[in-house]
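Study the following:
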Amino acid sequence: MSAPSRRGLLKVGLGAAALLALGGGLATLLQPALQATLKQGRLTAEARRLVGALAEAVLQGSLPAGEAALQRQVDAFETTVGKLPAAARAELAQLLGLLLSAAGRALLTGQRAPLHELDLATRQALLQGMRVSRLALRQQAYFALRDLNAASFFAEPHSWAALAYPGPRAL
């Protein structure tokens, strides 16, 4: 086996430098969005809009119609997230940050437009694509978003009537 040529080593070095620059540039693009999801345990306005768009898609058929019901669900989501351990909240903030940035959204969902600007059927199709993806990361993101929305919705007493659940019994 012959030794690598000088030209070959230079090509490898330039390729590695370009890859590092691309990764650093992507990290720089994503960083503001990653930090802009949770402030003192509260969702930012952008994150609330995103969570609302996701809740409509995940809870369609269960979530009552109207802006008040949607905002109540976003509040419930925020309350549920506030009860998570700090590490889980940090991971969720990263996921929401990815979905808030065009680059992260494109990588995770294949869609560059903000999710709240998409119609319900498109949002549901994007989530379905994440659910059946061959990439475990996309599946994990889907299940986290679905489970948090479902848990926060069904934990609220106002949603129990739709399930014909009378609530917990008095002891």
Summary: The mean pLDDT is 83. Strands lie at 38-39, 42-43. Residues 22 and 144 are 28 Å apart (CA to CA). The longest strand covers residues 38-39.
